[in-house]
Amino acid sequence: MELFSRDDETPGRLRRGPARTILAVDDSRTNLNILGRRLGHLGYLVVLSDNGHEALDLIAARGFDLVLLDLVMPVMSGIDVLNEIRGSRETADLPVIMLTGRCDAAAAVDALAAGADDHVAKPFDFDVLAARIDRVIDRARRIADLKRSNATLDARIAARAMELGEARVELAETRADRLRLIASLQVLNDRFERLSGTSDA
Asked: For 95, which of 3, 67, 140, 151 could close a Cys bridge (C-beta 3.0–4.6 Å)?
């Protein structure tokens, strides 16, 4: 595992705000080093891994904003790694862009069918890759914000439902008290009428 950050070399166009973390997975050390340097220039914090098993361990150990995953790797393919990512509740929504040297349409179909958020064929224009990374991370952030908003709304709805349930219970108790009071008044009224009738006689 290697780590690249914006401090490794003089940055190009740096991003503002907290550094986004990217895990780059490729069995080619040359490709990894290039990706690490180029993404580090853009202000990303980049972790490099040359095999799928290590990548899954890294994902389990820490959070990443995005994974760049090579499709064709020995021992454990990119599709296998992606299936593991999507199969875990903790990482099911982790953004993944699949990279592949295959230029046929089937490679893109395989990657997207397995759950990749995007697919980029090698050799790629780095500016295009950077734009796709931006888009996927921004979309993931918006989805996470929406989920948080929905969770907050669900909690508020649940609280209001509880309040409504409690209000209904109180109303039912009030109605029962009222019926008991009416019944008591009726009993008293009946007794009064009986006593009045006895007195008149």
From this structure: 140
Using CA atoms, how far residue 142 sits from 108, 110, 126, 147, 148, in Å, is: 25, 26, 24, 9, 10
Whole-angstrom CA distances from 47 to 67, 117, 147 are 10, 19, 27
Closest CA to 37 of 2, 71, 70, 72: 2
Q: Which two tokens stand for residue 38?
A: 């180029």
Query: For residue 172, is it left (φ>0), alpha (ψ between -120 and 50) or beta?
Result: alpha
Q: Which amino acid is at 18?
A: P
CA distance 192 to 169: 34
Contact 78, 107 (CB under 8 A): no
Closest CA to 43 of 118, 137, 121: 137
CA 100 to chain centre: 26
Mean pLDDT by 10 residues, the chain (201 residues): 50 58 93 92 93 94 92 91 93 93 81 91 87 92 81 82 86 88 86 75 56
Contact 128, 150 (CB under 8 A): no
